[in-house]
Amino acid sequence: MSVTPDPSQLDQLGRPLRSLRVSVTDRCNLRCSYCMPEEEYTWLPRERILDYEELTSLVRAFCATGVDRVRLTGGEPLLRRGLDQFVAQLTALEGLREVALTTNGIGLSEQAQPLVAAGLTRATVSLDTLRADRFTALTRRDALDRCLAGIEAARAAGLPLKLNMVVMRGTNDDELVEMLRYAGEIGAELRFIEYMDVGGATQWDAKTVVSREDILTRLSEASGAIEAEAAGAAPAQRFTLAASGQRFGIIASTTAPFCARCDRARLTADGRLFTCLYGREGLDLRGPLRAGEDGQALARRIQRAWGVRADRGAEERLALAERAALASQDELRRDPHLEMHTRGG
Ligand code: SAM
Ligand code: SF4
Ligand code: SF4
């Protein structure tokens, strides 16, 4: 007898599945030092990359399990041709109330308008510095102007924006106030992100992490009192500068993880489901999908994986006595699924 998927199903720690990050490609046009620092990478084989129809079928199955928010990510999602067509397919799905995008912004000059027309709800642009020489050093590409032009195009297209800034000691931690000022000028909420020891971050070192406490101390020294909001379901805890009323967020995954509230799954471009950013084993959904399994059966498969989930990767990392990069270069070369740029951040 077939069982209808139950959207109220919880994992082993009582958490529902509500949000899905879909990595549409593992390729990227930048080489950020905290994500893709190496010279060479093992890429997912092209024939395994799911087309938009296949990805939409999987997202539909996720919706049957209770997912109502999707975020497109990568690699760099705007490198994938016709992303607006995929967004249009997703926004037509029943039960999905939000289709968002995380991007480095470079492709937004050309794509912001078609994406908005297709129904994209909002975008987060990753921007770690406003200084051209520093941008080039950090990403190994001379592309700050294109990123800023992309942000302008997104604003002109009416796309609600957030900015993500990974804060690294000795690299860009002297730009906190400057970045907040810029975010205020463009009407975007800035989220400071602690440097995480995820797969791919082979240069990670505890000494380069700027903690939430450090960030708050520096900002309050420069800008006065800061008020904290109660922590909600979102990964970012929100704060307000008392003097100006400007809001910002901090994602403290490294020093104050939020696993207890994590309702998020990740799908790679070749159809592998990860129930944790730090998970080592994924569940292959491409095989069953390409073998013709129907949506209900796929949804039950997803739900079974969610039902046994007990992941709390970032909390386990925090409890380690010695902390270093999650995976070695050799491991990453053997299994690109361990990479942040494959599973989408
Ligand atoms: N290329 C797109 C971008 O950069 O926005 C989407 C993919 S990227 C993997 C998604 C997010 O992960 C970005 O905001 C990026 O800053 C963040 N990220 C990557 N590596 C990280 C690390 N080691 N620590 C913290 N955040 C990281
Ligand atoms: Fe940078 Fe995003 Fe590309 Fe990683 S995937 S190298 S964070 S732009
Ligand atoms: Fe969720 Fe895993 Fe991140 Fe914790 S480490 S918040 S369980 S994805």
Note down, in words, how this protein is organized.
46% of the residues are buried. The chain contains twelve helices and twelve strands. It has a domain of 225 residues: TIM Barrel (Alpha-Beta Barrel), CATH 3.20.20.70. It is of the alpha/beta class and 345 residues long. A twelve-stranded mixed beta sheet has the order 7-8-9-6-5-4-3-2-1-10-11-12. The two termini are 38 Å apart. The radius of gyration is 19 Å and the shape is globular. S-adenosylmethionine binds next to strand 3, strand 5 and helix 12.
- Neighbour order of strands in the largest sheet: 7-8-9-6-5-4-3-2-1-10-11-12
Largest sheet: 12 strands, mixed
**Structural class by SSE content:** alpha/beta
Number of strands: 12
Please indicate the percent range of residues in DSSP E strands (runs of 2 or more). Answer: 15-25%
The stretches of 5 or more residues where confidence is low (pLDDT under 50) are none
CATH class of the domain at 19-162 and 263-343: Alpha Beta
Q: What's the gist of this structure?
A:
This protein has helices spanning 52-64, 83-91, 108-118, 132-139, 144-156, 176-186, 212-223, 286-290, 295-307, 313-319, 329-334, 340-343, and strands spanning 19-23, 69-73, 98-103, 122-126, 161-167, 189-194, 226-228, 237-241, 247-251, 264-267, 272-274, 283-284. With 345 residues, the chain is α/β, with parallel strands linked by helices. The chain has a domain at 19-162 and 263-343: Aldolase class I (TIM Barrel), CATH 3.20.20.
